[in-house]
Amino acid sequence: MVKIAILGLGVVGGGVADIIADNCKLIEAQVGQPVELKYILDIRDFTGHPLEKLVVRDIDTILADDEVSIVIEAMGGAHPAYDFSLKALQAGKNVVTSNKLVVAEFGAELLEVAKEKGVRYLFEASVGGGIPIIRPMLESLAGNDICEVCGILNGTTNYILTRMKRGGITFDAALKEAQDAGYAERDPSADVDGIDSCRKICILAGLAFGILPAPETVSAKGIRSVTLRDLADAEAAGCSLKLVGRACSSDEGKTISVAPCFVKGTNPLAGIEDVYNGILVRGNALGDVMFYGMGAGKLPTASAVVSDIIDIARGGSMTAHWTAAPEGSFTDGEDAVSEYCIRLPRKLDQAAIKEADGEYTYIVEVAGSMLAKNYPDVIAAYKMI
Amino acid sequence: MVKIAILGLGVVGGGVADIIADNCKLIEAQVGQPVELKYILDIRDFTGHPLEKLVVRDIDTILADDEVSIVIEAMGGAHPAYDFSLKALQAGKNVVTSNKLVVAEFGAELLEVAKEKGVRYLFEASVGGGIPIIRPMLESLAGNDICEVCGILNGTTNYILTRMKRGGITFDAALKEAQDAGYAERDPSADVDGIDSCRKICILAGLAFGILPAPETVSAKGIRSVTLRDLADAEAAGCSLKLVGRACSSDEGKTISVAPCFVKGTNPLAGIEDVYNGILVRGNALGDVMFYGMGAGKLPTASAVVSDIIDIARGGSMTAHWTAAPEGSFTDGEDAVSEYCIRLPRKLDQAAIKEADGEYTYIVEVAGSMLAKNYPDVIAAYKMI
Fold first, then answer.
1. Which end of chain B offers a freer environment for a tag, N or C, measured as fewer CB atoms within 10 Å?
2. Pairing mode, strands A146-152 and A359-367
3. Closest CA to A16 of A89, A75, A85, A79
4. Which residue of A has its CA nearest to B282?
5. Buried (b) or exposed (e) across B229-260, using 16+ Cβ within 10 A?
């Protein structure tokens, strides 16, 4: 019998409890023994809730119980999620989380503690919701030298951009729709300012290259300034405007960035719409593979948590190996030389791909770091990938 | 030191040898010890080849060498690939293969022998080339009740259909292009008649539902009869014509089929073109996830083989659990009630989605098994998914 505790009975924690209840026979068949939920840590009142008897208020109750071998951190936020994860690992318990903030900020330390204690710290649900991505990167792509990982990592912003394009509505109107549909928070900053995507691309870069960049060192742009004209320019260039997190490695070094980009129609990320996520991994042997699915949501995310629980209960041993990236390991991917689609209030000596309202859109090859110098009157500029 | 033997230094076997040589440091870091190629079994003459010294002619040399813990079967065909795989497992060696024919025909027996001998039989490369699909289905989707697995599983036919559509050329002309480009064999039957896709959907059904259907019991249609008019009808219906392998499970039972289908534009499989493959998995908790990439090719396929080698060398334990499906476990998915797009030489009492040259295309809801009875003059019929 494998006994687990869930920290936080919110959306993800509740989903994990549901899946363990609904799919218990299937899970027992996979694991070879039953998996039982023993505790839920939550400070709210669950009087009358079917799981009321499992609720405890003190993390020490869980830490002191030797029967509990797996702790699910589904609290969200940095504290006390990080602190409780650390304590659980130090107490010799495996920890599973969907908390990308904690993984991106403290993942190097927590993996190190897990290694010392001979337990595991797994976070399949931290990127891409239910999409299997962490484990495939560690296992299936293990024989590859990965040169790029790149994705649409945030469903809320992808929904907003899809609604703007299809409905011809502004960012503000599309954001309101996303909030009304429950896809965006009342304070949407983590999504629309690229903060969530930034945490996720840091985790993916850590898996791909073995060094985990600190999110605060990464240049992350969001989508607040995206206009309908920008979307029309993208279409004129045969592209889709998407918020993309991207990390690359070559002989020239490593780059990382989060920014709205013009994704070319030939790139499989271009067709990913609504709340879906897609993650493209480029390896030296396998070429491009892409993973696609619902990037968020109660059951998809909880499904990924449960896959980690099953992996631990089966006695698996796969683990991420990374260290905190030394300062300067990554440069800003937006600074590199690339094709950019730029819009100017004047004509250049080349054919514009679109002109309207006195504004002219061109495709130019330029170092991103030189954009403002070369085109001081630039109205909009998007890297083309 | 992990020592391996490769049976057959063809495209895949050669690719495995290349990756092990090119990525040896990376692989050693992943495994914790070096992985060394000790033998190559091949009856051809390799005089002057850089790996000449490793070539042996007799499988018993490999079976008798206790240093060899992993045997890579990359011979193709049923015999002696099956026989050598069986002998290797019986000799207590782990076996890794890319041979979908052997996995689909003999996989239940070989997995059983592996289990008895305490070794592993892995076949990540048998479906989807380099796309991670076998391991994600076993691990990442483990907590899900999978209700459907469905995919574009053959790159050659997808290339032919893409060329027909884009180039406005016939099947025969597109097949010739595919042969000239090296994507199709001189005898293209295994690809264009759906035999290859059939083996792959059997393997995926085995993983999804725990019972492995015998390929010869599955109704498999190919793409030889697809016409440009069919492709135009698909477009008029907002669909893409694709060769799809599909296995479903519901309260009514399990179905399996391989057939050209009209894939609706909202289905993420619709946009998969050229030699790419895509596999869609639908689980009760996670919803839809799709895996996309090059479905064939030397290095992508070899990359999947190497991921299995690394998994074994690391001491992993994941394995498929399936038994041979009892007769009648699956019915023909093409027989079920579904939307069909049909073309007739006469008008029906509803609006046609396309009419030209005295032929009328309609969308109707009908049991596939009743199509010929209800529409005895049907010219073409494609299930819509």
1. N
2. unpaired
3. A75
4. A293
5. bbbbbbebbebbbbbbbbbbbeeeebbbbbbb
Flag if A140 and B139 touch (Cβ within 8 Å).
no
Helix ranges (DSSP H) in chain A? 11-22, 24-31, 59-63, 81-90, 100-117, 134-138, 155-167, 171-180, 189-192, 195-209, 228-236, 298-313, 371-374
Contacts of B382 (CB under 8 A, 6+ apart): B230, B233, B234, B241, B259, B260, B261, B262, B340, B341, B342
Instruction: Tell the residue number behind the tokens 């010890």, with chain if given.
Output: B33
Backbone angles phi, psi at A85, to 5 degrees: -60, -45
Which residue type, as a one-letter code, is found at position A355? E
Domains and CATH numbers, chain B: 2-122 (3.40.50.720), 146-293+327-331 (3.30.360.10)
Residue of A268, A305, A257 whose CA lies nearest to A129: A305
C-alpha distance from B83 to closest chain A C-alpha (Å):
27
Residue with tokens 């742009």: A221
CB B247 within 8 A of CB B333: yes
Measured distance CA(B150)–CA(B133) in Å, rounded: 12
* A130 to B287: CB separation less than 8 angstroms, yes or no: yes
Query: Using CB atoms, which residue from A131, A143, A311 is nearest to B19?
Result: A143
* pTM greater than the 0.95 cutoff: no
Question: Which of B145, B147, B303 is the mutation pick for testing A, counting most A CBs within 10 A?
Answer: B303
Q: How far is CA A58 from CA A55, A70, A84, B35, in A?
A: 9, 16, 11, 48
Q: Which residues of B touch A27 (CB under 8 A)?
A: 142-143
- Asked if A181 and A297 count as a contact pair (C-beta separation under 8 A), the reply is no
Tell me if residue B264 is catalytic.
no
Q: Under an 8 A CB cutoff, do B310 and A143 touch?
A: yes
Interface test with B, best of A140, A162, A273, A323 (most B CBs within 10 A): A140
User: What tens-digit pLDDT sequence spans chain B (385 residues)?
Assistant: 999 999 999 999 999 999 999 999 989 988 999 999 999 999 999 999 999 999 999 999 999 999 999 999 999 999 999 999 999 999 999 999 999 999 999 999 999 999 999 999 999 999 999 899 999 998 888 778 899 999 999 999 999 999 999 999 999 999 999 999 888 889 999 999 999 999 999 999 999 999 999 999 999 999 999 999 999 999 999 999 999 999 999 999 999 999 999 999 989 999 999 999 999 999 988 889 999 998 888 899 999 999 999 999 988 888 898 999 999 999 999 999 999 999 999 999 999 999 999 999 999 999 999 999 999 999 999 999 9
Subunit contact A139:B283, Cβ cutoff 8 A: no
Cα gap B151→B179, rounded to integer Å: 23
The ipTM assigned to this model is 0.91
Min CA distance, B10 vs chain A (Å)?
A: 17
At A210 the three-state DSSP class reads coil
Other beta carbons less than 10 A from residue A372's beta carbon: 11
CA-based Rg of chain B, rounded to a whole angstrom? 22
> A42 vs chain B: nearest CA distance in angstroms?
24
Closest residue, chain A, to B306 (C-alpha): A143
Collapsing DSSP to helix, strand or coil, B157 comes out as helix
Inter-chain residue contact B299 with A286, CB threshold 8 Å: yes
- On average, the pLDDT of chain A sits at 95
H helix or E strand, kind and range, residue A342: strand A337-344
- Residue B317 is nearest to which of A143, A307, A314, comparing CB atoms? A314
Tell me which residue in A23, A292, A307 faces B139 most closely, judged by beta carbons.
A307
Among A101-110, A317-326, B48-57, the minimum mean pLDDT is found in A317-326
